[in-house]
Automatic annotation (TrEMBL), chain A:
Keywords per UniProt: Methyltransferase, S-adenosyl-L-methionine, Transferase
Domain F-box/LRR-repeat protein 15/At3g58940/PEG3-like LRR, first and last residues per copy: 517-689
Any GO MF annotation of the entry: S-adenosylmethionine-dependent methyltransferase activity
Recorded superkingdom: Eukaryota
Recorded name of the encoding gene: ga05630
Protein name, UniProt field: F-box domain-containing protein
Domain F-box: 439-478
Pfam families according to UniProt: CARME, F-box, LRR_At5g56370
Listed GO biological process terms: methylation
PANTHER family: CARNOSINE N-METHYLTRANSFERASE
Organism per entry: Eleusine coracana subsp. coracana
Coiled-coil regions listed: none
UniProtKB/TrEMBL annotation, chain B:
Quaternary state and interactors: Part of a SCF (SKP1-cullin-F-box) protein ligase complex.
Organism the protein comes from: Eleusine coracana subsp. coracana
Protein name as catalogued: SKP1-like protein
One Gene Ontology term from the biological process aspect of the record: jasmonic acid mediated signaling pathway
Lineage of producing organism: Eukaryota, Viridiplantae, Streptophyta, Embryophyta, Tracheophyta
Pfam families: Skp1, Skp1_POZ
Length: 781, 174
């Protein structure tokens, strides 16, 4: 980036760190060889009979060596290219991935320390066993010293990263992470340059050889991965594409970068910061007014495990990150959770899942109403992937729950970047000639279709066109109010007509009982489909002082007689349910972050039971306070998901049609176990992450159960809870699928706390008929 | 996306149907492409539109129909795969590029397209054009919206009505 001159000291540091990197790469083969030697030593120690049984391992180690040398050859080729850059060779380089011809190396050995080091043993070949790709030289000997184990791991991690970003095998991960980002970008910048691509599998690496753990077969471990799956220079990615190596803070805090970008996308990046606030500040600065920030990634702060002790590392929870973003003018639009992996070996028996939290954020003035197609956006903690999140909640309650989740954020403002271009078009003659007539000739439902693509504010603004248009927006069957600053908007917009609403989506960052009371009754009358209400902020309040929101009074949910789906995330507002009325069409209800009054007028269990919710099929209740007991009698319920019902003393469920039940961490750890009575004879899937004691918990008969998910701790304090797990398992004679989440408490898992926050899912085949065998499959470091 | 029954697509590789525009121009097109239109799909499934008969479309003129068919032909292969769940990234990118180019046209054509897509019930085309028109409105001030959409400047009477409205829905104009 431009003009900045570096001091000698800075340059020396640069060179030093570059050296460390090169040394790590150059050390790859030796380090891997040491591992193989270690395997061989272990093998030699086997008694002869065992050796005979495993004689093929000797062959495997030879194959491993071959794979290692292939990987090393690739790494050396990569270094050669890099060397050209370092040595200042003018030879053009297509790109690192695309060039296989050994580029003529013309290092000036006196130029600087690095090239000198390279030249030392230029002629040594890395491995003679490699036939197809012969490395031209190995810049290694000087660098071999002092490669810390962490660097060895990093190189291996890079090799896996290549799979993630460049190989076909990484497509799933890329789809999971990049797709939401690209879809968001496409939505916001539909006319970006996009070009087609062509295939080119030029390179082969063996990324999975370094771990013997959880391999289903040796061939899986030794399998080759070809890349790149598309040729970068043919993909059009290179056009208008530039890379900038350097520290994000340093590069983008330059003045020339201010307001220079329409969009900033960060993926698995935020948690690399020493000072995350600085990152966010810079992102806000480099964005134009109305710019967009899309973020996806976990908050898995790096510095704690790797850096020296005095390294600065500000490690914020998701909630605080949002707060900081808000401070710099970003406003949340939608948030969501995605599930993904990071450089995972697909064929490993053990899969670490990262549960990602997805946030859409918009800048204050804009109220999105139209195009978001993902109806599920506001519903987090949903579905099977929630196993992990609630595990965290069990050990550390809510704060850690958020830290472990990755985050996806999209931030936008109302003034689009394309306004200028459109203005030009407005002055076109033909536009002003027939525009009005043609447009007004369209029937209402077509005009509604157009307005559905707009934010509610823009839709209302079309009223200025004519009298007719003043009516069109009120016909909208979908109203999405992203973040509402002032709930008077809601009353005003909702009472403009009586058209049934297929979808009403409200993000209210500061809902008060009174403001909700002003518009919810109107909403109850109009919503014929789905209502989503998210109260964003008060999670923080809930953490800080739980008294505050109860002082804000009680908010009464009106009876939604026509709605089919209701999702409320209330930020711990106190909710009271209506004492009478039937939710006649409701099939899906999701309540989270809710507080109840002990002596409220209605009873939640009564409301969701059959007489008053005759069609209810899916019910989830998460993060609830003040619920003393809940009794559900439902003929229709098929899916029930209860998580974190803090302080509850009694749970009774009678649901003859129930197929899927989740019960997690519903009680304080030190609290006396509540009485649980479940009658669900048709149950197919049970997720149970909660202490189990047969004296207070009665599960009834579950003859049709196919899948049981539960967890046990592998190390640490939670170990005593495993007894409960075993007791639960002993309740079932046979089961098709057991999903056992293995919990590793932080600090005990390897030496890398980085991995400790994850739960490892071990899927134990589909066939284990009894409980004695599955444990054999569990194989963990 | 209006996906034709896959059985229909396999049934004779390139069954053709004839469509007749309001100004009596005949268009011969593959049944699979025409079937993107929900309206036409029913007729075609019944065996209509073949041979010399043709399906008259009294609401669509030839200029618009040729544009509509351009869209249908391009999108038919993907739709035949049931909304293209297994389309490659290349195909998807190509379709997107096509779509972007496709709606880069005069407003009057755009409006006749959305009308035709509506009458013929071509879901993908309807939303494509709707989104294009919406983009022309997005983030603009009241006067900019009027001008962009080709509305003349308001008469004093209209202006008064506008003002009253803007007062009532002030939040939308902040």
């Amino acid at each position: 980036m431009g003009e900045r001159r570096y001091t000698e000291q800075e340059e020396a540091l640069e060179i030093k760190s570059l050296r460390r990197i090169i040394a790590a790469y150059a050390n790859y083969q030796d380090a891997a060889e040491r591992d193989v030697k270690r395997y061989e030593r272990s093998f030699k120690m086997l008694p002869p009979a065992h050796k005979e049984l495993l004689f093929h391992l000797g062959l495997k180690y030879q194959r491993l060596r071959w794979c290692i040398s292939m990987n090393a050859a690739f790494i050396m080729n990569m270094l050669e290219d890099e060397e050209d850059h370092i040595a200042g060779c003018s030879q053009p380089v297509d790109n690192n991935l695309g060039t296989s011809q050994g580029i003529g190396v013309s290092c000036n050995s006196d130029k600087d320390a690095i090239t000198a080091a390279y030249s030392e043993d230029k002629d040594r070949t890395a491995s003679s066993s490699v036939e197809n790709v012969t490395p031209h030289h190995c810049p290694s000997s000087l660098f071999k010293l002092n490669v810390p184990p962490i660097d060895v791991d990093k190189v291996r991690c890079i090799v896996r990263n290549i799979v993630r970003d460049w190989a076909e095998e990484g497509q799933k991960e890329r789809d999971e992470c990049y797709k939401p980002i690209l879809e968001e970008l496409n939505r916001l910048f539909p006319s970006r340059n996009k070009q087609s691509t062509q295939e080119a599998n030029e390179w082969t690496i063996y990324p999975w050889i370094h771990s013997n753990c959880n391999s289903l077969s040796d061939n899986d471990q030794l399998r080759a991965v070809k890349f790149p799956d598309i040729h970068p220079s043919s993909a059009g990615i290179t056009e208008g594409f530039s890379m900038c190596a350097g520290d994000f803070v340093e590069v983008y805090s330059e003045e020339s970068q201010d307001s220079a970008w329409d969009a900033v996308v960060t993926c698995f990046f935020l948690d690399t910061a020493h000072n995350i606030v600085e990152y966010i500040e810079i992102i806000s600065k480099v964005l134009k007014d109305g710019g967009v920030w899309i973020n996806l990634g976990p908050l898995l702060y790096q510095a704690d495990s790797y850096g020296p002790d005095d390294d600065m590392s500000i490690e914020l929870s998701l909630e605080d990150v949002k707060k900081v973003a808000y401070h710099y003018g970003f406003v949340m639009e939608v948030e969501n959770m995605i599930e993904t992996t990071y450089t995972a070996n697909m064929r490993s028996m053990m899969q670490s899942m990262i549960q990602s939290y997805v946030d859409h954020v918009c800048v204050a003035e804009s109220i999105p109403c139209g195009i978001l197609d993902n109806e599920e956006e506001y519903i987090s903690f949903k579905g099977p992937e929630a196993v992990q999140s609630s595990f965290s909640a069990f050990t550390n309650d809510q704060s850690s729950e958020l830290v472990n989740q990755s985050k996806f954020t999209a931030i936008r403002s109302s003034s689009g970047g394309d306004v200028a271009a459109k203005r030009v078009k407005a002055s076109d003659d033909d536009a002003s000639a027939g525009g009005e007539d043609c447009l007004s000739a369209l029937p209402d439902d077509v005009l509604v279709l157009i307005l559905l693509c707009l934010y509610i504010k823009d839709a209302v603004r079309t009223s200025v066109l004519s009298r007719r248009w003043r009516r069109v927006w009120t016909l909208l069957p979908v109203l999405r109010f992203g973040v509402v600053r002032d709930s008077r908007y809601l009353s005003s917009a909702l009472s403009a007509s009586e058209v049934p609403l297929r979808n009403l989506h409200v993000g209210d960052p500061n809902a008060f009982p009174e403001s909700l009371a002003a518009w919810l009754p109107t909403a109850a009358r109009r919503v014929s489909g789905r209502l989503v209400l998210v109260n964003f902020v008060p999670k923080r309040r809930a953490a800080d002082g739980e008294m505050e929101e109860s002082q804000r009074g009680t908010f009464e949910l009106p009876c939604f007689e026509t709605a089919t789906s209701i999702c409320l995330r209330l930020g711990f507002l106190v909710l009271s349910v209506p004492p009478a009325g039937v939710f006649a069409r409701l099939t899906e209800l999701s309540l989270s972050d809710v507080r109840f009054h002990f002596h409220g007028p209605g009873d939640l269990g009564d409301v969701v039971s059959s007489p008053r919710c005759p069609c209810l099929q899916k019910l989830s209740i998460h993060n609830v306070r003040g619920l003393d007991s809940i009794t559900i009698n439902s003929e229709s319920l098929q899916l029930l998901d209860l998580k974190n019902l803090r302080g509850v003393r009694q749970v009774s469920i009678a649901a003859p049609a129930l197929k899927d039940l989740t019960l997690m961490c519903s009680f304080l750890p030190d609290q006396k176990l509540p009485a649980v009575n479940i009658s669900a004879p048709q149950l197919k899937s049970l997720k149970w992450a909660h202490p189990y004691d047969p004296s207070s918990i009665h599960l009834g008969s579950m003859e049709h159960l196919q899948t049981l998910s539960t967890f046990c701790f592998v190390y640490g304090d939670g170990f005593k809870d495993n007894r409960a797990c075993l007791m639960l398992l002993s309740q079932f004679k046979a089961i098709e699928n057991l999903i056992l989440s293995l919990g590793y408490l932080p600090d005990l898992f390897w030496h890398k706390t980085a991995d400790a926050d994850f739960i490892f899912y071990v899927e134990l085949g589909g066939k284990a008929p009894t409980w004695s065998t599955p444990s054999l499959y569990i194989s963990v470091n | 996306m209006a996906a034709p029954e896959s059985g229909d697509g396999n049934n004779g590789a390139a069954r053709m149907v004839t469509l007749i525009s309001s100004d009596n121009t005949r268009f011969e097109v593959e049944a699979a492409a025409a079937s993107l239109s929900q309206t036409l799909q029913l007729t075609i499934l019944d065996g209509g539109g073949g041979g010399g008969d043709g399906i008259p479309l009294p609401n669509v003129d030839s200029a618009t129909l040729s544009k509509v068919l351009e869209y249908c032909i391009k999108h038919a292969p993907a739709a035949a795969n049931g909304g293209a769940p297994n389309a490659t990234a290349v195909d998807r990118a190509e379709l997107e590029r096509f779509d972007n180019e496709f709606v880069n046209i005069d407003q009057s054509v755009l409006y006749s397209l959305i009308m035709a897509a509506h009458n013929l019930e071509i879901e993908g085309l309807q939303s494509l054009v709707a989104k294009k028109v919406a983009d022309m409105i997005k983030g603009k001030s009241p006067m900019e919206i009027r001008r962009t959409l080709g509305f003349p400047d308001p008469t004093p009477e209209e202006q008064a009505e506008m003002n009253a409205h803007m007062l009532e829905y002030g939040w939308a104009y902040e």
